[in-house]
Each structure stands twice: as structure tokens, then as C-alpha cells.
Amino acid sequence: MLIFLYTMDEQSYDRFNVNKDKIYHLTATTISATGEIHHISSTGQMHGPGFKSEIPELEDFVRIEGANFTIKKDGDVFNQDALYADVNFFSVFTFPLLEGNPKTALKDIHSVVLSEEVAEKYFGKKDAVGQVLNLKIDDKFQPFTVSAVMKRSPQNSSVKVKMLLPMAFRVTLWKDTQWLNFFLNTFFVVKPGSNIKVVEGKMAKVFETNAAEQIKDDAKNGFKDKVTFGLQPLLAMHTSTDFPADNGLSDASSPVYSYILTGIALFILVIACINFVNLTVARSIKRAKEIGIRKVVGGQRRQLIMQFLGESSILSFIAFVFAIILVIVVLPFFNELANKSLAFSYLLSVKLVVGYIAIFLLTSLLAGFYPALVLSGFNPVQSLYNRNSFTGKNYLSKSLVVLQFTLSTFLIIATITIYSQFNYLMHFNLGYNDKNVVSIFSWGLDKQKLALFKNEMLSDPSVKSVTADQGGRQGTIANINGGTKITFDLKHIDEDYLPLFEVPMVQGRNFSKSMVSDSGTSILVNEEFVKQAGWKKPIGQTVDFFWAKKKYTVVGVVKNYHFLSLTEKLSPMLYSISPQFPYGNVFIKIKEGDKAATLNHIEKAFKSLYPFIPYQYHFKDAENTEQYDKEAKWKQIVTFSAILTIFISCIGLFGLATLSAERRRKEIGIRKVLGASVELIVRKLSADFLKLVLISAIIAAPAAWWAINKWLQNYPYRISMNVWIFLLATVLVAVVALVTVSFQSIKAAVANPVKSLRSE
To answer: CA–CA separation, 202 vs 605, rounded Å?
Structure first.
């Protein structure tokens, strides 16, 4: 039921929009001369109006761009996530307004739309419409009037609105005329019945015509990639792996998660059904006389089948009721585990109710059908004389046990691998020291403001060093000597950045305050940059920022370090201290000791020097750990599933061990009379089950190797699949199975042989 809730929520994303089947997300794909393909989820300011004006199948367009603002309210300052959107946002997407007119809400470029929770945050219970918020724009606070308040965005929406500003205002800050810029989302409303392939063909022609001069200019500077545009259905965006929701959109996911959870749910259901079959057949010894009497007094086989199916249905129904209660109890825990906000009301969805009823009927039938056939087929005479034979090969029961433990072993291997990969990521040498480093988000600090803060901080003996960088990530293209084009990440730092993080120089020198030219034309690059540029002597080489009409000279090479999550491959990095860039993050290296006092000093100093910059701090090592929250949650989910699966499998194994001991009661008695020891009998009874577990491991190993190998491909930095993982999983399952079986084996072995051998 919980997994049904999860998968339904994943599939329900963006379906609340009235125009859901007509809305398409504009995507771009670049193909280099060497055949390298890059998928881009974003576009620029030109694409929406450019395509709309020349392609009749496109009814409307709306652009959305993510933003973040500093807001001043009643003497306090706050960080606020926001979106820019075109004036027709509310006619394309379905976001009901509590107050205001959807047609005019974004008409005035100094208007702002708030969600109900943000309106309450800033204005309490007062009517927010008409109120004024001061937003920091280019170091100055400008007034924006609240024009509307909208309902809280649905949790299953890729577009989550907290604050909405007019795209027209964004254009006044920077008007982009480039067809080869990609930084925002463009959505089109396509006329019903339109052929999407035909529309995409028309977009290619419009792009080639309108962007011809820009394409020619960029080709001179080394950018010769072929660019194509596509239309992605809105409903396909949430779980897209090629074009995930980005740049202001939320909750990008992957269908893999639903597949994994659905697979786990099926594993557990199949194992539970197998248990029911095996345990019911095991209990048939106790019910043999009952079946014989029913047949003697006229009971037909059809009636017996219906009776046993009815019993399994009643048991399944009781389990079904308990399951609903459990779902209600553990839903908050599951939400935390799966990073969802699922409510109990979701259980009342028609689709879910039908699905639950289908599961109930299917499990009742699967669990009860085979036992009903077996039990109803007993010979009444043999049943009444306790002569039913249970000493056959029992291939079905054994096969079912093998299937159970194959699934269990598979999950145990998966759990060990996920644990190993997670620990590998946690203990990977990033190439820099992130311990005792306090990070403060401080967009807008220039060199002078940073120097002022540094002096204040270094007056405290508990502070070792202070530095800053430009927050965020910038994919940039530049030309290298000889015309080679390279894509890299640009980071704006100061002279103390590399020493604070203890990142060594491989060649050349670091930036220096005594070198005036450093802030104008000097840059540092990392080893990966040098490798991709093909330089043998990097010092003195130049990098041409053709888009800025400026060339920089390499003065040093920085040792590679992982500045991004290890889920991304190390990329070329270029460092600048150009004064034209503001800083986005301040880093403070503190000494071990009274961290609370040091943090208090940092906060007071920051707020006194920069009262209009919101104060928010994190420890850098904690930030790095948080990058792997998703892996940590999957580790929990798979571990819990593996434990549950093993537990359910052992219940079934315990039942089969009981049946085995029961039917071999006289054999054990004879062996004891003839001098067999308890140890020998226990080993004899346990051996058969251990063979089944080993067979399970042999079957599970190749399937697990294939699945885990596919999963590990998502990580550029990963563990290698070792034999010890499979051996450890096999040993764990074997030990658990042995402990389970041994209880019944020992009980049978120590029983009095006189009671076992006497005639009934």
C-alpha cells in the first residue's frame, strides 16, 4: 500500500493542470563534431516569443526562471526563493488565486504574487494584496506591490510557487537576444491534433533562420555544435532522465525509484504468498482427519476447495485491515524516508482503492488456491487412519523455498553493495580539508566588504582564516591556444581560498595581493583543465573568453579536488579574482574548542557589518554529507526491505522445518534407538535446507551482479563488485536459515523415541 502511494504520487505530477495534455516543455540537444551529445532542459529569452510568432501550432508560451531575493521587512531581512514568469502564467498553468485577478496579477512589472504560506510569513493574518515588499535589486531595495495571493502549490507539482515576479521586470535587468543561451524554462501550449514532429521540424527552420548570424559568429570562436529543439510533454517531465526539471522547477525524479520499490513490493508479496502455501500444507497433517470426516459425510471436493479458499480470503482480509492501520501509523515515517508529503486522504483515491482490492483478491487466490487443491484431494480412508503420505519429493515446496531465498539473497547483496557504496562516498578523499569550516551564504559582497569582514573575524583568536568564492556553478565555454574549445566551471575566489581549504598548487603560483595584474588578466586552472586542453606546459598559456572579448593568462595549476558531489564526474575548473564578480559564499576556518562562542561572534559581526544581508550558516563537512541524502534514504529503504524479506522467509522456513520434523518423527526415533547422537540428527535435518539456501545463492548471484552493476553505473566514483559481497550475503542467509531450522531440528532430536515409535 505504501509503495502504491509512492508510485501513484510519482505518476500524478502536474496532472492537476487543466491544459496538461496541451502543455509541452521546450528542450535542446547539442551534438558536437565528435558525436558527443548534451541534453539541455533550459532555453533562453528568445525561444518562446521567437517560435510562437512563426509557428501557428503554438497557441501560447510562458517562460519561468528561478531566482532568489533578499527581502527587507520591518527591519529584518530574509532570503526568499522566487520565480520569474510571463504575464499569462495563470492562463497556461492551473494555480487558483485566493485573492487578486489572474489576468492582471503580473501586468505591472513591480507587482509580486505570493503563495498563501509566504503571504502569512510576511503579513500574518492581514490582507496581503496591496501591501508592499522591499526586494534587493543590484544592491538597492525596490518596492514591489502584492497583486495576488495564490493557494499553496500542490505537492505533486513541478512548478512550486512561493513568490512570482513578472518576466517583464527580469528583461529590464538584462535583455537576452542570444539564441544560443540556455538558462530558463519555456513552455508552449500546442493546438490539439498538432503533429509534434512537424512542429519540431518547423522550430529547426525558425532557429536556423533567426540564429544564422549568431551561429556563424560562435563557429568562428570554436562553437560548432549542432543544436536541435524538442517538445517534451509536461506529464513526462517529472521522471525524465534526459531532460529533468531544473532552473526553477522542482522535484526532478527518476522512474528507477518506482521500479525498485515496486520490485521490492512484489518480492515481499510473493514471499508472503509462498509462506501461506507452505504453512497451510504443513498444517494439513493436523487437518487430515477433519477432511476425511467431511468427505465421508458427503462433502464434495468443490465444496472443500471453496471452504479453503474462503479461509484464505478471511485471513487475507484480516491482514488487509491490519495493513490499513499500519499504513496510517507509519505514513509519517515513510514520508520522511521517501522524501514525500503523502497524506492519508490519498488512500481514498479511486485508483488506489481499486488497486488495493485487486491486491487483496489476487493474494487471497494465489495463497489459497494450491493448498485448497492439495487438501481437497486427500483420500478419506487414508486421512482417517493418518496414512496420508508426506514423504514425497515435495518439489513444489522446495522450489518455493529456493525462490524465497533467491529473492532474500538478492536483497541482501543489494543492501551490502549500497552500504559499501555509501561508505565509499562518505570516506572518499575530496582533495581538500572541509573540517571546522563555517559557510555563510552572502551574495553581493565585493572585495572591500569582504576585507572589512575578514579584519573583524581575524581579531578573534578562535578564527584561523577567512575566504570567499562566487556561489553556484557556471558552465562556460572558451577557446584555448590553437582554437581548441573547452567547457569548464568558473569559480571566483580570493587569495586565501586555496590555503584555507589546504588545496596544493601543482605548478606555478597562487593569486597574490602583491600582484596587481592578478585581478585583471591572471587565472588558475586545475589538472583536469590542463588535461583536456592538451597542454604540456600550462604556465603562460592563454584562455580566450570570446563572449567577453577578453583573454586571460594561466599563472598556476591547482591540484584536482572534488568541488561537486561525487555523483558527478570531475570537470575542468578555472579560478579568477576579477573584481567584476561579487562573492556568494564566505568560508571561515575555526579552531577546535568552544564552537558555540565562535559561531555567536561570527553572527554578531556579520549582522552588524551587513544588516541587509540575511545571515545563515552551515558547516562545510555537513553540507558535503547532505549531498548524499538520497543515497542514505535508499540505504535505509533497501535495508529495511531486506530485513523484512529475510524475516518473512524465515517464518516460511520455520513452518517447513516443522513439517519435516513431523513427517520424519518415526525415522528420528529409529535413528536414536540405533545410537544416533543429537548432533548427527540435527545435522541430518538441517542439511537439506542448507542445500536449498546454497542453490538460492547460486541463482541470485548473477541476477544481483547484473542489477547492481547497472545501478553503480550512475556513479562516476564507485566501488568494484567483489566476490566477498556475494560470499558474505550467502553466509548471512545461510546462518539465519540454519538458526531458524535448528530450533525444530533440536526439538525433534531430543524428543523421547518411545513416544515417536509407539502405535497410535
So the answer is: 58
Inform me whether the pLDDT recorded for 520 exceeds 90.
Answer: no
Q: How far apart are CA 390 and CA 380, in angstroms?
A: 15
The single-letter code of the amino acid at 456 is E
Extract the C-alpha cell encoding 317: 482480509
What does the block give as the cell for 327? 499504513
Q: The whole model's pTM is what?
A: 0.80
pLDDT per residue over 607-625, tens digit each?
Answer: 888 888 888 899 999 999 9
What distance in Å separates the CA atoms of residue 538 and residue 597, rounded to the nearest whole number?
45
- Grid cell for residue 588: 571561515
Average per-residue pLDDT for the chain: 85
User: DSSP string of 188-245?
Assistant: EEEPTT--HHHHHHHHHHHHHHHTHHHHHHHHHTT---EEEEEEEEHHHHTT-SSS--
Report which of residues 259 and 471 the model is more confident about: 259
Checking DSSP bridges between strand 111-115 and strand 140-150, what pairing results, if any? parallel
CA proximity to 180, closest of 158, 143, 208: 208
Give the bridge partners for 499, in sequence order: none
3-state secondary structure of 493: strand
The bridge status of strand 573-576 relative to strand 226-233 is unpaired
Distance from C-alpha of 398 to C-alpha of 253, rounded to nearest angstrom: 40
User: Lowest-pLDDT range, 389-403, 501-515, 560-574, 663-677?
Assistant: 389-403
SS3 letters for 305-345? HHHHHHHHHHHHHHHHHHHHHHHHHHHHHHHHHHCCCCCHH
**Using the 8-state DSSP alphabet, how is residue 559 labeled?**
P
Three cell numbers at 195?
Answer: 503533429
- The pLDDT value given to residue 428: 92
> In this structure, what are the phi and psi dihedrals at residue 272, rounded to the nearest 5 degrees?
-65, -40
Summarize pLDDT for 15-67 with one digit per residue, the tens.
999 999 999 999 999 887 777 788 999 999 999 999 999 999 999 999 999 99
Closest CA to 466 of 442, 488, 487: 442
* SS3 sequence of 502-551: CCCEEEECCCCCCCCCHHHHEEEEEHHHHHHHCCCCCCCCEEEECCCCEE
Question: Taking phi first (over 0 means left), then psi (-120 to 50 degrees means alpha), and beta for anything else, what does residue 228 get?
Answer: beta
* Pair 222, 180: CB distance under 8 Å: no
Cα 597 from Cα 591, distance rounded (Å): 11
Spatial CA neighbour of 650 closest among 270, 271, 261:
271
Question: Residue 290 corresponds to which amino acid?
Answer: E
Q: How far apart are CA 84 and CA 594, in angstroms?
A: 43
Closest alpha carbon to 175 in 46, 67, 86: 46
Highest mean pLDDT among 170-179, 349-358, 477-486, 547-556: 170-179
Q: Where is pLDDT greater, at 375 or 143?
A: 143
Task: Kindly give the residue spans of alpha helices, DSSP state H, lying in 377-503.
Answer: 380-384, 395-426, 447-458, 497-500
Phi, psi of 553 (to 5 degrees): -110, 135
Contact, 80 vs 71, CB < 8 A?
A: yes
CA 252, 258, 261, 264 torsion-angle sign: negative
Q: Which residue has the cell 592578478?
A: 518
DSSP H helix total and E strand total for the chain = 24, 22
CB neighbour list of residue 158: distance below 8 Å, 6 or more residues apart: 13, 14, 234, 237, 238, 245, 249, 250, 251, 252
State the pLDDT at residue 267. Answer: 82
